[in-house]
Design goal:
kinase, PTS sugar transporter subunit IIA, kinase activity, Rossmann fold, 143 residues, Bacterial_PTS_sugar_comp, alpha/beta
Length: 143
């Protein structure tokens, strides 16, 4: 099963997880990380790293953030490059995550990414989708 880490500013992550659990019951391998004002980037990175390891059963972990490009998104993106089968999805809502609960047990992280972005509409994106728009710099010649 895919692990989920919901990371948002303020208490939105905790509120989102509570709303999901009210509808779907307790969610195994799911953690909420609230990003409070004044939290250092180093501390946020450590919190997300802990959440990643707590939720990963070997099938992969999905980070959910409220917006593309914010501090939670960028920090999750840095962690995702170091771990296989780790995805970052932005622009999610409680309704979308509620629909996606069932997909956690049947889809790979890559298939989950594609499906949730497709189902989520224009406000939902992923790190992978953003990188396809702006491919990373590649050095063509050895120095």
């Amino acid at each position: 099963m895919l692990g989920w880490v919901i990371v948002c500013r303020g208490y939105a992550a905790q509120e989102m997880q509570a709303a999901l659990e009210e509808k779907a019951g307790a969610l195994a391998q799911c953690r909420a990380v609230n990003v409070q004002e004044g939290l250092s980037a180093n501390m946020l990175s450590r919190m997300l790293c802990d959440a990643l390891h707590e939720t990963d059963s070997g099938d992969g972990v999905i980070f959910f953030t409220e917006e593309n490009g914010g501090t939670p998104y960028r920090t999750a993106a840095l962690l995702s490059h170091k771990h296989p089968h780790c995805e970052v999805i932005s622009g999610v809502t409680v309704a979308l995550l509620g629909a996606a609960v069932a997909w956690r047990e049947t889809l790979t992280s890559e298939s989950f990414r594609l499906k949730i972005v497709e189902q989520g509409g224009e406000n939902v994106s992923s790190l992978w989708h953003q990188q396809q728009k702006n491919p990373p710099f590649v050095l063509k010649h050895a120095l």
